[in-house]
Amino acid sequence: MTDGQPVTIIMIEDDEGHARLIEKNIRRAGVSNQIIPFTDGTSALSYLFGADGSGEDSARRQLLILLDLNLPDMTGVDILEKIKNNIHTKRSPVVVLTTTDDQREIQRCYDLGANVYITKPVDYDGFANAIRQLGLFFSVMQVPETA
């Protein structure tokens, strides 16, 4: 990691209950990294790509992106595509969190460069367990150096 800079977790999730649950379970797994929440794609993309839209703002950031696919203003697939097509953000790991288990959609996310795909179980325990696993994953993960 560049200069030992900590990874910032970008959470793009419009369901407040899910967002709280995700954060709680990440913290419970011992991950203390900053989490920046966004409830829609537009604000998340403007944070990631900056005022000029180039993405250069994120060139020096170590990011991990948690992405819900069902957002009020655009699809998570569109956001994933934009992140992975930008030279400054394409190496940022993206974890897709969604309620759909449609195999075509899952495959499309992997094709676009998603690193992990987690289906949000409708029951609380299943979801909490998936997020706990994610927390453990974060605690051992190293973000690749940016070029």
Please characterize this protein's 3D structure.
The protein is of the alpha/beta class. Helix 1 packs across helix 5 (124-140). It has a 5-stranded parallel β-sheet. The protein has helices at 16-28, 41-49, 76-84, 103-112, 124-140, and strands at residues 8-12, 35-38, 63-68, 94-98, 116-119. It contains 5 helices and 5 strands; from the N terminus they run E-H-E-H-E-H-E-H-E-H. The mean pLDDT is 85.
Quickly list its features.
5-stranded parallel beta sheet; alpha/beta; globular; 147 residues; 5 helices; Rossmann fold
Topology:
Blueprint (H helix, E strand, L loop, with lengths): L7 E5 L3 H13 L6 E4 L2 H9 L13 E6 L7 H9 L9 E5 L4 H10 L3 E4 L4 H17 L7
Parallel strand pairs: 1-2, 1-3, 3-4, 4-5
Oligomer state of the chains in this structure: single chain
Number of strands: 5
Low-confidence stretches: none
Kindly give the count of domains: 1
Question: Could you provide a short overview of the structure?
Answer:
With 147 residues, the protein is an alpha/beta fold. 39% of the residues lie in helices and 16% in strands.
